[in-house]
Design goal:
The structure is a homohexamer. By secondary structure, chain A is of the alpha+beta class. Chain A has a single domain, classed as 2-Layer Sandwich (Ribosomal Protein S5, domain 2), CATH 3.30.230.70. In chain A, 29% of the residues lie in helices and 31% in strands. Chain A contains five helices and ten strands, in the order E-E-E-E-E-H-H-E-H-E-E-H-E-E-H. Chain A has helices at 80-83, 88-102, 128-149, 180-184, 214-238; strands spanning 2-4, 17-21, 29-35, 38-48, 61-68, 113-123, 162-170, 173-176, 188-195, 200-207. In chain A, the strands form two sheets. A six-stranded mixed β-sheet of chain A has the order 1-2-3-4-6-5. Chain A has a four-stranded antiparallel β-sheet with strand order 8-7-9-10, with helices on both faces. In chain A, a hairpin with a 4-residue loop joins strand 9 and strand 10 (200-207). In chain A, helix 3 (128-149) packs parallel to helix 5. The longest helix of chain A is centred in the last third of the chain and has 25 residues, at 214-238. Chains in contact: A-B, A-F, B-C, C-D, D-E, E-F. The A-F interface holds A 24-27, 30, 37, 39, 41, 43, 45, 47, 65, 67, 69-74, 76, 79-82, 84-86, 90, 116, 118, 120, 122-123 and F 24-27, 30, 37, 39, 41, 43, 45, 47, 65, 67, 69-74, 76, 79-82, 84-86, 90, 116, 118, 120, 122-123. Strand 10 of chain E pairs antiparallel with strand 10 of chain F, so a sheet runs across the interface. Chains A, B, C, D, E, F: This is Ribonuclease PH.
């Protein structure tokens, strides 16, 4: 139930990937996703009904929530529940995860049903939002299997595999799958979500201080594409499809 | 104090732009930014002091807030104050505006001082986040002038002009500066923030349902670059620099 | 679409009034109300349905919301959304606006329908609550016209014109329509809402430090009555009724 | 320690008043204020320090809080703590109480010290806000005595007695000190706060549906003045000053 | 309507108990409960309907709310409404009160009906949570009587009398019914809720710093049992049953 | 680093225990605590400073936070952050964990330093609050070791080992260490926290519907004592002390 890819310290390689399915017993899909020292519990939960704005539309919904355990980080992070609200960063990340996974599922083939993707980071060493998408897809895949087996849906609503990674420019070097230390000193930080067929679901590239050129963009996108194909291989091995 | 660009209904052109400075009297910079039917009051306010996380770092800060007036939209939008919190969308937009404008200002040349960019949308017809950046930059420019005149800063901290626009794919056509109706039916929606020298500060391109190819990306970026040069011209005319 | 009244610096006169209709395009009524340097966007929005406490009562409702743009004031005001709640002052003002306008509309002639009056202050130089009532009435008038034209209501539910102004005692002098500076140094500050027929809807007169006599009260009410008749003239000119 | 005034069912008379001092043992002033079936625990608490906006101004502050016990009303009222915020009505009332009592105390004679007036309604039968002022003044008086005895202040900061009552028009009749049933059916409802010397601290007169004339106003103010003199007598008897 | 038990200063005796029924006029049950200087208004309110999680289960519900008046304590306590939420302590106490009273009522004999027990502490000198249970039971008893008389329920749902008290170890001495001063210096503090037939509904015994032995536990439970029988006698006298 | 105890299906035995230290890398103490199917990540974080109420008291503090991952439960639980506040149950549990662990640590030997115990339940099958105490103690032990090694404290502030378990009455049978199914149908549910020397830190025993006798209490406490000694053995094996 577990796929690994051997570690490689070259900055243009992915960090070691490990995808452990069946991590907890109640969720319809439950994955412990690791990339380097980043570790995230991704679960998929299937519920009847859809949010208010979709009632009567005869389609399903997929939404994501993201959270850091307080001591997943170097210094303890205050819980959102203690502050009484989620930070802007948290909301932005969960919107990205939801949007990315909705792009590869046919919501109309799900009837009025909601899939919750919960991504709880237990150790954060950079790339938590992209690892949430990569791991979340595997949990989603398992929950779709569950729905097929139970006869909840009659045809598979998944359209394609998808995975995500980060690329950036650190000390004038292009870097794939940035760890926290690299991310902190990056001049440019870009998250890329792609499908197995090589199409973009989302590109988010922000210059921290020094804006980047068109040529930088091209090189980063090539690197991201390679990385994402490697991640999709890892997803398939974990799912015992290859 | 006002710059306009003649209207053009071709979908690959910008909508008519109008930048009216000195719109309200108390703010250090105050602009009514219009692009098509989208109208936003952008103000820049200079305050002493910096947020907690920067105290003692001997640098300044720039932050943005964004809000829709309830009846800026087709149907009335509930106020954030009535809900008791800002939506995820609002937080995501204000983070983008802040990040984009911080990329063209030298925070270390500002001492411990904060510039607030407030973007209050009075009429929303698509592209409010990018128009907030374009108009917000002009308000920022005026507030920097104020600081120079008052001797609050000794050298100009602005590094370059910046503006932003949206591009997308609607009915298999590439479209620049999407209005609300185009945006609602777009397959791909991309926001691009660039500097006058043609570098990217931010690219955010999301596929709503159909992922997009590399060639789509290239064509959208070209369109965005043309649009942004047009917007920077409009900013300069409003500032009476050309 | 615009009514002005020539400026007059005498403290017992109204400040220059300007009422600009059709200010934004989506609302059923939309007015830019100015009195002196105070400027407020007042919109009226018509929605089906009524609040919970009126369901099944076969009558309509009118409610108001009031907000200051952060830089409508000399120093930047924190947004209610950032604090997570509205201040006591804001709630008190929106209750006053709602109560005042409900007094001149026959709610039973509206069926189960709600009119929202949104008053967003873009520049605050005193008298924002009374100017919200005066401008809000014009937006309400236009929204009622819209409902009549669309056949939403069969008879006009408006009973009378209404407007509001402030009066006070500043340095032992009676003052009409106080600007911010006068208001700050006033010993007594009174808001008066009257109908065209000279009846009171609301009187709110508070001594800041020195309680006032019955004779002071009488003189302030006379001054208010004159001012309100001037404001109702301005409303009618803006509505092209005179 | 208790003052009563014999009951009288004439609508132009006060309801029976009862002011019981020393109701609870910890507060510096603690009063059970009754007017008819309205019963309120009013306490005055003296604390060192002033709110943020007054620090370093070398003056004191007085502020009020008001709350209904859930079952003080005919039907159970939800607690503000359960809703997570106070209603607009509550905030408006506590601002009125604070403003009224601040008008009769010399804040500069108190050093940097805050007096909290807490008004907790245990039985609500109309007129709770005015009874809070009348009873709150007695608690305040006792807390000032405490400060004098303890040498916390050297001279008495109280300037005058004050009390408050309501007047209104019910079924075309002028009514003093409205109970809940009268208040519910009143066409006009006015709260008046006066000093012993006959000056107004606050007048708040709102027409529920039918605006009122100048002559109505005059008659209501006369009735209020009589009532308030009766209440000040009751305060003095409770304080054993007459 | 009132039951007292003569005071006794021995630390192994209850403090003087006073239970005054009919304290306020609107609630179906309304009691002023005093034990020593602790005074609590306990009301029982009967409402139609049950919370969401019980709808359609054909049974009733009983829930409790607890609150301190700000100046019920030595120093003024901030209102939960001002903080926007209830403290952990408050929530823990109201859960205990609700649980304890639900244990002696047959919810299935109440149809879909909710009884709210509101416990508002007006003077707090230790033991407020246990006095809330003892006094709340009497209010509950009266509200059940009301339901019987009105024919709202056909058979009495109460199963047994219940009361509660505290016991503890202070300076190596076993103490019953701790006042605030004793509670503050106690090494062990235990709350015990028992029925008339001598069974436990709840035991909560916490060591503040020094864990306690089994023999300590036994002695404290004996003391509690005696105290609770005394309290049940006081309840019955107040209810005029003995 | 891991201690297990062989499974035993007898209801008077503990479920299999597994304590895995060093589970995440940033926290000063980090444990994956399992008892049966209940799994909790317990971390201990050491921070400089103490909460406001202890400043200047020259002592340390220990506090706990507790949270369920949304899909740790059979049905998905809404996040506290989505509701904007923690439930009463959560607050009650974290107060219990904090109180229990503070009873075995000498806060005065820690200087002004705070230890946070975070208990994040990843799989909930009953007994999460007691397992949080048992696992939290091991994380605390490791964080104290860290402070000793770093020279942050000079002497070991831990006074004794402590662990906790639940006991109850299910179908007239005494049961130790209840799983969710047993807990749901229990007539009595009791949590017991004891030290190695056999003293009680906390007893919380609640009857769900049927109050329990003194003899029931005695039998449950014996069972609890046996279980806790077994858990302390498991803690020591995990810490490699036996």
């Amino acid at each position: 139930m577990t796929a690994s890819q051997s570690s490689n310290s070259d900055s243009r390689d992915l960090r070691p990937v490990r995808i452990e399915r069946g991590y907890t017993k109640y969720a319809e899909g439950s994955v412990l996703m690791s990339t380097g020292d980043t570790k995230i519990i991704c679960t998929a939960s299937v519920e009847d009904g859809v949010p208010y704005f979709l009632r009567g539309e005869d389609q399903g919904w997929l939404t994501a929530e993201y959270s850091l355990l307080p001591r997943s980080t170097q210094d303890r992070t205050t819980r959102a529940a203690a502050r009484g609200k989620r930070s802007g960063r948290t909301r932005e990340i969960q919107r990205l995860i939801g949007r990315s996974l909705r792009a590869v599922i046919d919501l109309e083939a799900m009837d009025e049903r909601t899939i919750w993707i919960d991504c709880d980071v237990i150790q954060a060493d950079g790339g938590t939002r992209t690892a949430s998408i990569t791991g979340g897809f595997v949990a989603l895949y398992d929950s779709v299997d569950y729905m097929m087996e139970e006869g909840i849906v009659s045809e598979n609503p998944l359209k394609e595999f998808t995975a995500a990674t980060s690329v950036g420019i650190v000390d004038e070097d292009y870097v794939l799958d940035l760890c926290y230390e690299e991310d902190s000193s990056a001049d440019v930080d870009m998250n890329v979500v792609m499908t197995e067929s090589g199409k973009f679901i989302e590109i988010q590239g922000a210059a921290e201080e020094s804006p980047y050129t068109r040529s930088d963009l091209d090189k980063m996108l090539e690197l991201a594409e390679d990385g994402i194909q490697g991640l999709i291989d890892a997803q398939k091995r974990a799912l015992e499809l290859i």
